[in-house]
């Protein structure tokens, strides 16, 4: 069921823990080479030219983010929330539009401002999500379910929002049940209680990288044994490990130093995961970060990418790449996953897909991984 992976094959992950030279590939020339014919009809079709990705902010230290300009408010009727406690928290504090619909640029700016997420990690996660579940023509993304607020959808079904199961949202989440078992979006108190026993057993009451490694492995084993449709392939193999590390780096108050750094207390965890709320007076991380430590989580209990063929029958399948092979993931993401969603794009749609694909490649930041162009380069 569980297969060991050679540690030597472990490479730095991508989306949520990009290679350090990610920033060596600025995206500021991305519109070059597009024909005037493709640019002209955008407004007429209700489309928007996606702007180049925001860069890192000028100040990247810790600061109070639970401030008077960003008071927490419970979601109002019609406000959208989804499976990500980070994005939900930013929306409930007004760093993102409180209705839960935002452009990729707004999301990148918000995760940097509110959590001090590293620029390349922010770009990688956001543009990947946008290509999978956003409205790439209108340049809008729902942080939860499908909504008319993201505009007219081309071809009419792809802009589902990040709650859509099997695109970015996936199985073995830490605080939400698998889609097969019920509501994959709602916070699950039983799973949080289970997590808290791991806080106590492995972290002296706190969530840290050691706890993350044990809990991540346990949740995967639970899903393998109970979910006949369990899937841990491609992006989910990357995100499952990255998301287990994020709370250690970004949910801990940035004023903590020494032995307290990287130790998330249970009340703060509950505040983020359940209430989508900064703990009172919260300071963001002291330096830009993302999924640092995910390599430790992977190597503590390595599990190959794969999927269940019936409960308890885990079949290794690396056809979509994994955290162990980010270049294969990138290539398959573009050539298989995105192409399946958009087999024959034209006009504005094709132009915007190409721009967003370029943004994803730039976030990868790996010059040894060749860029692929499924829709041509003009
Ligand atoms: C940059 C854009 C981001 C996108 C597109 C994104 C998207 C997502 C998605 C789709 C999930 C659900 C995956 C699943 O099924 O478990 C998720 C989970 C998660 N996200 Fe985000 N996220 C982003 C940023 C952040 C940030 C800034 C944080 C922390 C400050 C964060 C923390 C988490 C955590 C801890 C989970 C796991 C929840 C669980 O397992 O119960 N994310 N994210």
From TrEMBL:
Note whether Iron occurs among the keywords.
yes
Q: Keyword set for this entry?
A: Heme, Iron, Metal-binding, Oxidoreductase, Peroxidase, Signal
Q: Which Gene3D superfamilies match?
A: Chloroperoxidase-like
Q: Which cofactor does it need?
A: heme b
Transmembrane regions listed in the UniProt entry: none
Mention any Pfam family matching this sequence.
Peroxidase_2
Signal peptide location: 1-24
- Residue segments, region Disordered: 39-81
Q: Which GO terms describe its molecular function?
A: metal ion binding; peroxidase activity
Question: What InterPro entries does UniProt report for this protein, alphabetically?
Answer: Chloroperoxidase, Chloroperoxidase-like_sf
Heme haloperoxidase family profile domain residues are 68-305
Can you tell me which family this protein belongs to? Belongs to the chloroperoxidase family.
What protein am I looking at? Cloroperoxidase
Instruction: Specify the species.
Output: Coprinopsis marcescibilis (Agaric fungus)
């Amino acid at each position: 069921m569980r297969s060991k992976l050679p540690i030597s094959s472990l490479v730095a992950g991508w989306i949520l823990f990009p290679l350090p030279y990610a920033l060596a590939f600025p995206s500021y020339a991305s519109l070059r080479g597009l024909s005037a014919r493709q640019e002209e009809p955008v407004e007429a079709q209700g489309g928007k030219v996606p702007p180049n990705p925001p860069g890192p902010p000028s100040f990247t230290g810790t600061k109070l983010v639970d401030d008077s300009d960003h008071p927490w408010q419970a979601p109002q009727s019609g406000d959208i929330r989804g499976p990500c406690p980070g994005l939900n928290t930013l929306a409930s504090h007004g760093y993102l539009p409180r209705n839960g619909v935002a452009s990729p640029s707004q999301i990148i700016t918000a995760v940097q401002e509110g959590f001090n997420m590293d620029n390349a990690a922010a770009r990688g996660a956001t543009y990947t999500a946008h290509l999978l579940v956003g409205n790439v023509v209108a340049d809008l993304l729902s942080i939860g379910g499908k909504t008319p607020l993201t505009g007219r959808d081309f071809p009419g079904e792809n802009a589902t929002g990040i709650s859509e199961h099997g695109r970015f949202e996936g199985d073995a989440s830490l605080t939400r049940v698998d889609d097969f078992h019920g509501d994959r979006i709602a916070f699950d108190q039983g799973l949080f209680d289970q997590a808290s026993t791991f806080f106590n057993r492995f972290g002296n009451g706190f969530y840290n990288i050691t706890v993350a490694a044990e809990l991540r492995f346990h949740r995967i084993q639970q899903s393998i044994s109970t979910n006949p449709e369990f899937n841990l392939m491609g992006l989910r193999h990357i995100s499952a490990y990255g998301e287990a590390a994020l709370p250690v780096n970004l949910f801990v108050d940035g004023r903590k130093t020494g032995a307290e750094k990287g130790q998330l207390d249970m009340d703060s965890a509950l505040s983020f995961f359940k209430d989508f709320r900064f703990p009172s007076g919260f300071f963001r991380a002291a330096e830009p970060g993302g999924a640092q430590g995910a390599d430790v989580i992977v190597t503590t209990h390595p599990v190959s990418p794969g999927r269940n063929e019936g409960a308890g029958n885990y079949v290794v399948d690396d056809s979509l790449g994994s955290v162990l092979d980010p270049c294969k993931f990138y290539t398959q993401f573009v050539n298989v996953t995105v192409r399946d969603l958009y087999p024959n794009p034209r006009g504005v749609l094709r132009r915007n897909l190409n721009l967003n694909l370029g943004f994803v490649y730039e976030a990868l930041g790996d010059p040894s991984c060749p860029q692929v162009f499924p829709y041509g380069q003009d």
